[in-house]
Amino acid sequence: MADLAIGVNELDFAYAQLNGVEPRAVLEKVTLNLPKGSRCLLVGSNGAGKSTLLQILAGKRLTRSNAQVLGQNVFFQTPPGVTYLGTEWAANPVVRSDLEVSHFLDSIGGYRYKERRDRLLDILDVDLSWHMHEVSDGERRRVQIVSGLMAPWDVLLLDEVTVDLDVLVRSRLLDFLVQETRERNATILYATHIFDGLDSFPTHLCHLQLGTTIAPSPLEWPLNLEQAGAREAVPEEVRARMDDPNRTGSKLLEVALHWLVEDKQKRIEKEVREGGKQKRGARGQGETTNSEDFYKKYDYSAGR
């Protein structure tokens, strides 16, 4: 356990019961043990529980299940050196106010980490004279990343924060993150739906399906077929497409697409099993929707 940056075993989580409604399980039997120095991509469809897992590991949600970061219970004794960057930051009215970037970074201690701060300013191409209410969403996201990474971290939890970045800045940031893990033995858990250019980034993958990790968790990357469960996690037909000499594009994307197709099928099977029908998508032909009823009632085009 001493070599683990993240230790999660059989973790369960459900939101609290409100107004007599039974709590809904979000995570069940989640297992993810990551060694220090690793870079793990968290792969799963929307609603699989990726953000919830990252928030638990950041100490932002209470759970009494076994979840440790750097050997500590993350909610009751969150260790120093854990950094979480999520998309909700951009909705904070403070970071959309008339606030100069230099003043903002100084207010959160940027002057203490001048060398790292300046390096990140160059990598993310940030202008210290920007005013936060005038910049684009992508530029605001760059400021968030500078503010989050300028203090040295041991475990970095990323939730879709690169989605607003242009290709050049994203590539340079990923290079920086790889260097951090190699030089400082730091660890990254990164949830993303953008796999382009990521083939050489991760050391591990974690497949989260309907709130449950699919073994092996984590899966070594590049794919190690000697790892127990690897052949089942990435079946032969997927590996054949990955190894096709005429293929173009990302091998990692090939694996992610296979998993996401599988996730959708499992979700549909669960919906039918629990409610008798598939919930998402267009309704059956001939079935009138509530919106149709509404517009027919107030449709005066026929001269009524």
TrEMBL record:
**Segments of skewed composition (Basic and acidic residues):** 293-304
Q: In the record, what terms sit under GO molecular function?
A: ATP binding; ATP hydrolysis activity
Record organism: Rhodotorula taiwanensis
PROSITE patterns assigned to the protein according to its UniProt record, in alphabetical order: ABC_TRANSPORTER_2
Keywords of this entry = ATP-binding, Nucleotide-binding
Highest taxon in the source lineage = Eukaryota
Q: What are the TM regions of this chain, as residue ranges?
A: none
Q: Where is this region: Disordered?
A: 270-304
- What Pfam families would the database entry show? ABC_tran
Domain (ABC transporter): residue spans on this chain: 8-235
Task: Name the chain's protein.
Answer: ABC transporter domain-containing protein
